[in-house]
Design goal:
Shape: globular
Radius of gyration: 25 Å
Enzyme class: hydrolase
Strand content: 15-25%
Number of strands: 31
CATH superfamily of the largest domain: Glycosidases
Protein name: Alpha-amylase
Cofactor: Ca(2+)
Helix content: 10-25%
Keywords: Calcium, Carbohydrate metabolism, Glycosidase, Hydrolase, Metal-binding, Signal
Largest sheet: 8 strands, parallel, barrel
Family: Belongs to the glycosyl hydrolase 13 family.
CATH architecture of the largest domain: Alpha-Beta Barrel
Number of domains: 3
Strand order of the largest sheet: 2-3-4-7-8-9-10-11
Number of helices: 10
Amino acid sequence: MKRRTRTLVLGSVTSLALAAAGLVGVSLATTASAAVTLNNSDVTANLWEWNFPSIASACTNHLGPAGYGAVQVAPPQESVTLPSTSDGAHPWWEVYQPVSYGITGRLGTQAQFTSMVTACHNAGVRVYVDAVINHMAGSNNTVASGYGGSTFSPSGYSYPAVPYASGDFHHPNDGYCNDADGQIDDYTNAAEVQNCELVGLSDLKSQDSSVRTKIAGYLNKLVDWGVDGFRVDAAKHMAASDLSAIKGQLHTTTAEGVAPYFAQEVMPGGSGEIGASAYTGIGDVLGFSYAYGLKTQFANGTLSNLAGIPSWSLDASSAQTAAMVTNHDLERNGSTLRYQDGSTYTLANYFLLAYPYGQPFLYDGFAFSTSATGASPPSDANGYVTGTSCSNGAWQCSTQSTGVKGMVGWHNATRSVTTVSNWTNTAAGIIGFSRGSLGWFGVNRSGSASTATYPTGLANGTYCDRITGGATGTGCAGTTITVSGGTASVTIPANGAVAIDVAARSGAGTTGSPVSPSAGPTGSTGTVQVTFNVYATTTMGTSVYVVGSNAALGNWDTSKAVPLSASGYPIWTSPVAVPSGASFEYKYIKKDAAGNVVWESGGNRSLTTGTATSYSTSDTWR
């Protein structure tokens, strides 16, 4: 199930006020106390076991400005605290053993959690929570307390802080778990997989309406605090009918007024009731098979085989998949690429954002040794996770790198085209392809730079490589690529990639990510022509306009917006004389025959005119 977005229709007076405040393109929720503008993106940064203040900072300083659509937070609920285990003190898997549904755990307090949600929303980023709802802390625990001070009885299956009692759990030969030891022994047997204990974890009887209500109560508490969706841990170990019933009790999100997004962990293996197809009616499923396939081709340097992805046997369709290169389990068991694979891992993440399969989930956890896969994240003596530093080697921070953030922008600018074209293999490990007429991507998984001429699908012009920095108001921050006659001679670095698109052209600035509004134009002397170009599809009777922060663009008054010509549809265009030597902001709007106005989503776009005689933009409707 993909994220849905509601479009807000504004009258001219209301829209003028919101534009001046930088709140154009908002989505209103039925229960929200305040409107927020969320990025029009389906890319999620999975910041696994980062603490809440560190995630808030990442949203504000990196994820929001780069155009990420969401951030995934590790399980926030109170968990067991284990000062001594075979994996050392406070292993990472503590957070997957809940003691209560209170938000007082090793990642932070309730106040820090709600502050994080607010910070992320203010940055345009949704918040997804890793929800552990299949089970509680294991009955084999010798410790009987959690991080917030809640106590429980492991052997007695008693968790008074929820409260749950023994009757709320599955037990050996109870009519549900027909197994003498109460454990899952046969992972192809649906009754065992869904009704017996997973590695000794106390398995909730989710068939029970009272259990469902308590689980839904926990999730609703988070939704009411602003959470936008969930990664459902161990979803395969709950019957799809139970999970569907729980989801049916959930409130709509406060920011957008829609059902919370679901990404369900359904490991491959088994079919029918425990196959991925049993869960796609509830929400998306994690793309395990896709991650396995990416490892095979990138590790072997056989990228040309990626042309066969449409014929791969994958867990679910693109529209129902949360795609990934790795996650916390997979990087530890070695079944997928991981950060220790260096540039190969980086290239696979670029490809994840470039190829139109699934909703991309980019992963950043903490550094670990492959000989100590259960170790704790960086923490204090009591197990509380300390702040993330991207400079000391203790944490993975690829989601903040120039290349990955650039590819997020590329993905956002091209994702309306859901197929690839102009697929080119110049060698087994060197490929290129385009996303219609919106963008081109090339990747080189070899030890030598490669120069070749590629069909790009793009209009003639000068483009800025996203991976090396994208476009600025006066040129390119990194590599410049010239397209002529639809082709381009491109040098792809050894173990590198190049990505160009219509929203990052030389001198036009990089769009596809929100920008902070400014007070208005500055330093104006004379005028200069700016040709506004935007890729936008419309229905009959609807036209596209540009409006902005100076008089030439209507001073945010939609009744004075500049109409664009559809002669090159779906590219809408018009030259406008604007002040030279000035900075200004602008956005695109659509008007129908009745005069109703729809603003594009995201933050205000910006442009600074310098000494050039003319400028042009190459934008894509958001």
